[in-house]
Amino acid sequence: MSNKSKGSNAERELFKKFIEAGWRAVRVAGSGVMENAECDLIAGKAGGRKYAIEVKSSKKPVKYISKQQIEQFMIFCEIFGLHPVIALRFNREGWLFLHPKKLRDVGNNWAVSLEEAKKKGERFSQFFSY
Fold first, then answer.
1. Which of 35, 47, 73, 82 fits a 20 to 30 Å CA distance from 54?
2. Tens of pLDDT, residues 104-115
3. Which residues pair with 57 in a beta bridge?
4. CB 98, CB 123: distance < 8 Å
5. What 3-state class would DSSP assign to 19?
6. What contacts 80, CB < 8 A, 6 or more positions away?
7. Residue 25 host element (H or E)
8. 3-class secondary structure, 11
9. Domains of the chain (ranges plus CATH)?
10. How far is CA 56 from CA 22, 23, 31, 59, in A?
11. Which residues are tagged catalytic?
12. What's phi and psi for 42, nearest 5 deg?
């Protein structure tokens, strides 16, 4: 399975999780391949916060994200008034959610290890409860 299809599968899995939890969500067409598609999902609930979600999955213990991608993601969130979220799924660990500010600076990239994600991140029901 290609990395693109693995990423698409992760996006669909998370989309389904939002719908099953009573949220409204949309997958952003062209995310990851088209210019100006700066997030993977947008989700919200009536009367609650609205989120732009960048979905990342990894079989390795550290996930790297380019600074350019995060910068464009944050600008997108600001323009639309959305709260930015990084959704991480490490193999056999389930989903963890964190704000991009919690990523670690490693030069040209931001990074987060599984260990850091477990300490700094939250599970779906924790992060999206209000």
1. 47
2. 999 999 999 999
3. 89
4. no
5. helix
6. 52
7. strand 24-27
8. helix
9. 3-127 (3.40.1350.10)
10. 22, 20, 12, 11
11. 31
12. -125, 130
